[in-house]
């Protein structure tokens, strides 16, 4: 299938609207090609970073797939594209990492998966869970806790030796994108997926919000209850920052 970017109105960013079967088909092609590809996702945090950090936006602009991850992004895209927003098919286009990772078993020829990020316990449990989900693949991982230059060098060396076909990089945003910006040109060919906190979620350490909350666009409330210190600024402060950035962008002279 052709990967076509679509503009998300109001937010002034582009995304690649895909369902899980669509993405599985794309990954089939990427793995068969054996080239370097990147898969990222858009939520309000990534949109804010796109408007405040030119290097972050450049990385997103150059990525092969930009999934829609986050209810506000989904609804604004659906409104602009004319897709139905009544909880039906349009919801299939909202893909958080844990929505599509279980479908990796459907990717033909996927034999080696690397899991980078989270603490030792979560990483180990996520590797075991993925090995059960994708039995045809060898799954290996390295924790990302306490990320620094030395650890980054060792991870690059390990990846060069393991040579995975698909890498789940869960260091949190924007660290994972910064690492890929620095290192992608020297990393072995693979599909590199920025998955944020999905490693802890796959491991079962971080609880996922009930799906009905996701359909109502209320996952933020679930995360706020579970992780108030981590999430409070993103919920209450960052939307105001993003609003200011969008207004400033509108007022900038064109040319």
Distinct helical segment count: 12
Helix content: 40-55%
The largest beta-sheet arranges its strands as 4-3-8-7-5-6
The low-confidence runs, each spanning 5 or more residues with pLDDT under 50, are none
Strand content: 5-15%
Got a strand count?
A: 8
- Rounded to the nearest angstrom, the distance between the terminal CA atoms is 34 Å
Gross geometry: globular
What structural class should be given to the helix and strand makeup?
alpha/beta
| Mean pLDDT across every amino acid position | 89
Radius of gyration: 18 Å
Q: Can you summarize the main beta sheet? A: 6 strands, parallel
Order of helices and strands: EEHEHHEHHEHEHEHEHHHH
Give an overview of the whole structure:
With 255 residues, the protein is of the alpha/beta class. It is 50% helix and 14% strand. The chain has 12 helices and 8 strands. The strands form 2 sheets. It has a 6-stranded parallel β-sheet with strand order 4-3-8-7-5-6, with helices on both faces. Helix 8 links the parallel strand 7 (166-170) and strand 8. Helix 2 (44-52) crosses helix 3, helix 2 crosses helix 12 (228-251) and helix 11 crosses helix 12 (228-251). It is globular, with a radius of gyration of 18 Å. It starts with 5 loop residues before the first strand and ends with a helix. The model has no long low-confidence stretch (mean pLDDT 89).
Topology, pairings included?
Elements: E1 6-8, E2 13-15, H1 20-33, E3 37-42, H2 44-52, H3 54-62, E4 65-68, H4 71-81, H5 97-100, E5 112-117, H6 120-133, E6 138-142, H7 149-162, E7 166-170, H8 175-183, E8 191-194, H9 198-203, H10 211-215, H11 219-226, H12 228-251
Parallel strand pairs: 3-4, 3-8, 5-6, 5-7, 7-8
Antiparallel strand pairs: 1-2
Helix pairs in contact: 2-3, 2-12, 11-12
């Amino acid at each position: 299938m052709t990967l076509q970017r679509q503009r998300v109105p109001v937010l002034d960013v582009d995304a690649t609207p895909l369902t899980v079967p669509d993405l599985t088909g794309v990954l089939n092609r990427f793995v068969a090609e054996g080239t370097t590809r990147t898969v990222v996702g858009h939520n309000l945090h990534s949109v804010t970073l796109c408007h405040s950090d030119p290097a972050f936006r450049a990385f997103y602009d150059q990525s092969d797939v930009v999934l829609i991850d986050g209810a506000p992004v989904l609804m604004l895209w659906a409104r602009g594209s004319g897709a139905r927003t009544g909880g039906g098919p349009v919801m299939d286009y909202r893909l958080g990492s844990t929505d599509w990772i279980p479908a990796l078993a459907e990717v033909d020829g996927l034999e080696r998966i690397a899991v980078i990020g989270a603490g030792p316990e979560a990483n180990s449990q996520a590797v075991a869970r993925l090995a059960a989900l994708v039995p045809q693949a060898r799954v290996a991982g390295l924790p990302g806790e306490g990320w620094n230059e030395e650890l980054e060098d060792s991870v690059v060396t390990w990846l060069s030796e393991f040579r995975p076909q698909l890498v789940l990089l869960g260091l949190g945003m924007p660290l994972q994108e910064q690492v890929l910006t620095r290192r992608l040109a020297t990393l072995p060919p693979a599909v590199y997926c920025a998955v944020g906190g999905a490693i802890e979620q796959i491991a079962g350490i971080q609880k996922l919000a009930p799906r009905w909350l996701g359909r109502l666009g209320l996952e933020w409330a679930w995360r706020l209850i579970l992780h108030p210190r981590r999430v409070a600024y993103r919920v209450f402060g960052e939307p105001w920052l993003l609003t200011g950035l969008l207004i400033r962008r509108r007022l900038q002279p064109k040319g």
